[in-house]
Structures are given as C-alpha cells and as structure tokens.
UniProtKB/TrEMBL annotation:
Coiled coil: none
InterPro entries membership: ATP-NAD_kinase_N, ATP-NAD_kinase_PpnK-typ_C, NAD/diacylglycerol_kinase_sf
Domain of life: Bacteria
Gene3D superfamilies named in the record: Probable inorganic polyphosphate/atp-NAD kinase, domain 1 (3.40.50.10330), Probable inorganic polyphosphate/atp-NAD kinase, domain 2 (2.60.200.30)
Cross-referenced SUPFAM superfamilies: NAD kinase/diacylglycerol kinase-like
Protein's name according to its UniProt entry: Inorganic polyphosphate kinase
Length: 302
C-alpha cells in the first residue's frame, strides 16, 4: 500500500521574526530601526505577506494528503521521503537551499513577496497552489530538470549545490592548490600549481548570479550553460603568476564525465555551496576534491 503524498512546506524565518528574537518586543525593534533612519512597518508588512502566503499554501493542500513544515535552518536534519511534494514558500535562494537535500522530489516554488524576487525559481503565486499541488504528482506534469554541481573528496565526503560550489579560503588569505582536469577521472593535461582567491564551479542556474559576475568581469568568451544544460562553467578567481604558480588554466566548461580536481596545498580550505558557509567541507593539506556534474537534478514544476 503506497503512502499518500506529503506536502512539505519549506520556509525561512522572516526579518521581522529575527528582529523580535534579538530585541524582544515590537517596540524595541521599532526603536532600534528608527535610530538608524528606518521603519519597522515595512519589515512587518513583508513578514505578514510571507505568512499569508504560507497560510494560503497550507490551506490548498488536498485533504487526503499529509502535510509538514521545515524551516531553512532545519533542512539538514529533515528527512524527505520519495512521496513528498516540496513546496518552497519564499525567495529564489530558498529553493537552492533545499535542493541539495532532495532526491528527485517535485518542487513547487511559491513567491511569498511578489515584486521583490526575480522569480527564477519561485515562479508561482500562492493562489495557484491549489491547482499546482495535485498537478505536481501527475505522470504528465511538466518539470524543468535543473543541473546541479557536486564536490566529492578523496575520503568520500560529498556536497551538492544548485547554483555553484566555491573552493577556497574562509577569509582573505591565498588558496594554494594544484588544478587538474580529468575525463571520467582520467587526468587530461598537465597539472598546474596555482595561487588564487578560490575557484568557482557553477551551473546554468548559477549563471544568473555569482558565476555571471566573474564571466562579465573578465569579458570571457565562454558560452555559459542554460539551467537545464548538463554542463558546468568554472572560473579561478584572481590567479597569481609566480615562479611556482601558473595562470594558464583559469576558466572552462565541464561536460558530463569531466571533472575539475583540486589538490590542496594550503593548511586549510573549504568547499561550500550556494553561499551556505555553515555547511562546508573542510579540506586539509594533500586532500583532493573533484567537482563535476551531479547525477541528481532538481525537478522544478512549471
């Protein structure tokens, strides 16, 4: 007997809730912001819009379904099931936050504050949830299968991201490593020792953000991938030429089966995805990390 679908509503703590947690009361929060020339009213209005959207989506869940909620900070401890429909109520970035914890479940992105978000990933308004949720479990439901990027270390640690993975120092120190390209884990070309401020490997979804800024900054001729393309783009940030380090390999594309390998030659580097520094892989001297197209994809409902 198969389980009924479960709607998992993913949300995040609002700015207003964070202010109340810090200052204790609405009045104290208002005083804090007014002393800095800002009004608490706009922050509270965004909070109320978000909670109205969340309530509207919750009310739209079919009566025969199960329902659960998870806050962004608890995603790494939440157990998603194969029968789940994941409903992200918030900003585009919240979809990316949830993506690495999923294994093929359909995702419905609900824009909780229309007009403030680009709407690349949260494509729908809350009033469409009543139709979208049953549609998401239909056999013929139309979804975009968005490519993800994976980092895997030589001791079997693994990290997934929807936009990009950064490998480099936590602060502003120099990252030292040897960079090597491979095809199906077979080296291609000579390794190059490098010193830089880090390496960024991203998807077509990430090509609308941090990856694009690097691409534009260096007037790159690379054709950035589209979100559904099974390719990645990579850039070395501020590579430094010296007698011991080179700059001949600072950008490129990775097709399925190809990888970018970094062997650490610093005391400590980190790898984190989609800007979430708190969930990072710690990399130490001599360790190797391989970045490549991930097998899982994010199934985003139209």
């Amino acid at each position: 007997m198969s389980l009924a679908p479960r709607a998992v509503l993913v949300h995040r703590t609002t700015e207003y809730e964070e202010l109340l947690a810090r200052h204790g009361t609405h009045g104290q929060a208002a005083f804090f912001l007014s002393a800095r020339g800002r009004s608490v009213d706009a922050v509270r209005e965004r909070h109320e819009r978000t909670h109205r959207a969340l309530a509207e989506v919750a009310a739209a869940v079919p009566l025969t379904w199960r329902q659960s909620r998870v806050e962004r900070a608890d995603l790494d401890r939440f157990l998603f099931g194969p029968e789940d429909v994941v409903v992200v109520v918030g900003q585009d970035g919240l979809v990316a936050n949830a993506a690495k914890y999923l294994t093929g479940q359909p995702v419905v992105g609900i824009d909780a504050d229309p007009g403030r978000n680009p709407g690349v990933l949260v494509r729908h308004r809350a009033d469409r949830a009543r139709r979208l949720l049953p549609y998401a479990v239909e056999t013929g439901a139309t979804v975009d299968e968005l490519t993800m990027v994976e980092a895997r270390t030589d001791d079997a640690q693994r990290l997934l991201a929807l936009n990009e993975i950064y490998v480099g120092p936590r602060g502003h120190q120099t990252a030292r490593y040897t960079l090597e390209l491979d095809a199906t884990e077979v080296p291609t070309g000579a390794p190059e020792p490098q010193a830089s401020s880090g390496v960024l490997v991203g998807t077509g979804t990430g090509a609308t953000g941090w990856l694009r800024s690097l691409w534009e900054q260096r007037s790159s001729a690379l054709a950035l991938p589209a979100p559904v393309d099974a390719r990645l783009a990579w850039f070395v940030r501020e590579a430094w030429p010296s007698p011991a380090t080179g700059t001949s390999r600072v950008e490129g594309l990775l097709d399925p089966g190809e990888g970018l390998c970094l062997t650490v030659e610093s005391d400590r580097l980190v790898a984190f995805g989609d800007g979430v520094e708190s969930d990072a892989l710690e990399l130490t001297w001599g360790q190797t990390v391989r970045l490549a197209v991930a097998d899982p994809r994010l199934r985003l409902v139209h």
